[in-house]
């Protein structure tokens, strides 16, 4: 059975660090990086996300 996980970071550097840790544990990338904004709080925060599978 495959496992699926979505990794989230508040910067591209943070996301890269997390992805590299999961890649060392034999996880594989699923698709590309997505970027989204959180506009509901009045602060325009960006989030970077990447799906991974194992």
UniProtKB/TrEMBL annotation:
It comes from the Bacteria. Residues 1-54 form the DUF1737 domain. Pfam families: DUF1737. This is DUF1737 domain-containing protein. It comes from Flavobacterium lacisediminis.
